Amino acid sequence: MLLKIPLAWLQLARQKIRFIVALAGIAFVVILMFMQLGFQDALYESATQVHQKLKGDLFIISSQYKSLTSQQSFPRSRLYQVLGFEGVESVSPLYVQFSKFKNPQNGEKNPIYVLGIDPAFPAFDIPEVTQNLDVLKFPNRVLFDQASRPEFGPVVENFHHNEPVSVEIFPYNGTVGYQVNVGGLFTLGPSFGVDGNLIVNYATILRIFQDRTPEKIDIGLVTLQPGTDVKRMQAALTEILPNDVKVFTRRDYINFEKDYWSVRTPIGFVFSLMVFMGFVVGVVVVYQILYSNISNHLMEYATLKAMGFKNKYLLDVVFQQALLLAVLGYIPGLIISYGLYDVASNATQLPVIMSPNKLLAVLISATLMCFTSGFFSIGKLRSADPADIF
Amino acid sequence: MNEKTIVHIKNLNHYFGGKSLRSQVLSDINLEIKAGEVIIMTGPSGSGKSTLLTLIGGLRSVQEGSLKVLGWELYGASDEKLVQVRRHIGFIFQSHNLLEFLTARQNVQMALELHNEPDRIAKVKAEEMLHAVKLGNRINYYPSDLSGGQKQRVAIARALVSQPKLVLADEPTAALDSKSGRDVVDLMQQLAKEQGCAILMVTHDNRILDVADRTIYMEDGRLFKEVVL
Fold first, then answer.
1. Least crowded by CB within 10 Å, which of A357, B55, B90, B133?
2. Structural domain containing residue B216
3. Which InterPro entries does the UniProt record give (chain B) (predicted)?
């Protein structure tokens, strides 16, 4: 049947105030979903940016490893075992350690994540690290993450003013600090577990943390010769190495970290729950609109049925209204979310970014939400019985 | 049943309620309505008039007896069939039942949505019909801006615009003052005559009985007498 009279639209548009309130409600839910998804993605994105930037094809970690922020060492000899393998080009250790960084301005000590690399091998696929590799060959020189949270003080400003930036680093439970100079900057950014990052020569880590030995490393970076099958090599290394270590491809490693945050920490659950709650609120808002539209016009709908309109025609009207509400509520929601993403990423330094996936995910959930309400409200429509109006 | 017969009812019975509570609301109804006839049905409330209207209108399933409307047998007809039959009948109700978010013209045009008229033609027809019910100057008004009599006239335009062969009206003047009630009924009669359309009207309004070709009286589910005026 051709729709010459757009009943769905005319009915919504006739009650302007109610229509606008409904759209505001849906826009609000859309914003809620965008923010939750934005932060959720920022959580995973920021938690895995080290993994994404690490050089290498395979990564060896302790089998006790749970996440980057709960580091767990394993014997360095495992790495040398790997070096003997055909197809392995090079290996390099990574030492990681939380420490405390004393704010040079107010003396407050904040936890900072220290990544100790071998200066012979630029462990990170970050141009600033590669360029500053020589800096790390000096003792007591470190690279500071300029995207770190502001709690660490005016390190970046001082560095840009060519002032020598001397800072103190403390072992996590120690009171005696270790003096280092910031010799360069790089960009990695904080995550939900880390406020800031330092890249140092691993010798520096061993000096700050007296209880650490070079034989215990945290992450082993394995670079394969070009053309080597990564999956097959992973299987072979897993086979040959003892059970105290795991061999991951980059994808495995990233997923492992994501799983930790989504399954092991409450935060992943909280985000999923909030998205679901937003959905439920949206269903209720839209249901109110659709239901009252139907129940206020029950006589008229029954009249249409008497005139020979089928139930399907009226169902179509309800679902068209659902779709109209979804799409028209989505647009202002999206525009406001863009603005809020900017505010959120500036405030948290986290990568809260709009992406095509999110655009689509929220559009689909908004539509689903409105259709769900449609399904709940059509029960009332069936009660419009034309035999009752005589 | 000849060509001129629009409605042909034979030995029609109807019951409400199930098993022990079952009560008969229509008993042995026999009625014939010819093309262009205006029939008024009166009788006390609860006598089964509305039930008979809903049966003829295809709004209820026939339980016993034969009921033919426009040549279709409604006894044992599928829901799909009933919907088809309804599209050839004009309905006018006690209250106007107009969609308040549509203008007068759009309300009338709704009846043409079912008949696959091209939009342009449907629009013209709807407007002509509104002129015919003397609302040519209210075409783009919403029902809330019309008086009770005007709204009922829009409802009449809606019922007649697709030129049905049968109009069923249930107390169309009940909500109107005597002057507008008279206007509405005169209009119905005049248009029905022009279109050759039969009207079966239920009413308690004694002032309008004169428009009928025939008056029938129902009591306790029986068609008691037939009065030829």
1. A357
2. 1-88+166-174+196-229
3. AAA+_ATPase, ABC_heterocyst_DevA, ABC_transporter-like_ATP-bd, ABC_transporter-like_CS, MacB-like_ATP-bd, P-loop_NTPase
* A261 in any annotated domain: no
At A351, list the tokens: 């990568």
Label the pairing between strands B198-202 and B166-170.
parallel
Q: CA-CA-CA-CA torsion for A333, A335, A336, A338, nearest 10 degrees?
A: 120
**pLDDT(A1) > 80:** no
For A15, name the nearest residue in chain B, comparing CA atoms only.
B101
The helix (H) or strand (E) run that includes residue A263 is none
- Contact across the interface for B95 and A15, Cβ inside 8 Å: no
Chain-centroid distance, C-alpha B132: 18
Instruction: Compute the half-sphere exposure of residue A268: CA atoms within 13 Å on the CB side of its CA.
Output: 12
- A24 assigned to some structural domain: yes
- ipTM for the whole complex: 0.87
Find the closest chain B residue to A298 by CA distance.
B97
Same domain membership, residue B97 and residue B77: no
Residue B44 to residue B221: CA distance in whole angstroms: 10
Same domain flag for A98 and A171: yes
In the A/B pair of chains, how many CB contacts fall below 8 A?
77
User: What residues make up the domain containing A354?
Assistant: 7-46+266-388
How far apart are alpha carbons B110 and B162 in whole angstroms?
10
Residues A173-199: pLDDT tens digits? 778 888 999 999 999 989 888 999 999
Give contacts of B 119-138 with A, CB under 8 A.
119, 122
The distance of Cα A377 from the centroid of its chain, to the nearest Å, equals 36
CB contact under 8 A, B60 and A11: no
> Is pLDDT above 80 for B186?
yes
A203 & A115 share domain? yes
Question: What's chain B's average pLDDT?
Answer: 88
Cβ atoms B96, B151 nearer than 8 A = yes
For residue B40, give the CATH number of its domain: 3.40.50.300
* Min Cα separation A386/chain B (Å): 6
pLDDT in tens, A332-378: 999 999 999 999 998 888 889 999 999 999 999 999 999 999 999 88
Nearest CB among B50, B84, B91 relative to A307 is that of B91
Task: Report if residue B181 sits inside a domain.
Answer: no
Which residues on chain B are in Cβ contact (under 8 Å) with A299? 95, 97
B210 touches chain A (CB under 8 A): no
| B58 plus B23 within the same structural domain | yes
Is the domain of B84 the same as that of B1?
yes
- Give A-chain residues touching B109 at CB under 8 angstroms: 4-5
Is B175 within 8 Å of B94 (Cβ atoms)? yes
In a domain? residue B142: yes
| Chain A residue numbers touching B50 (CB-CB < 8 A) | 390
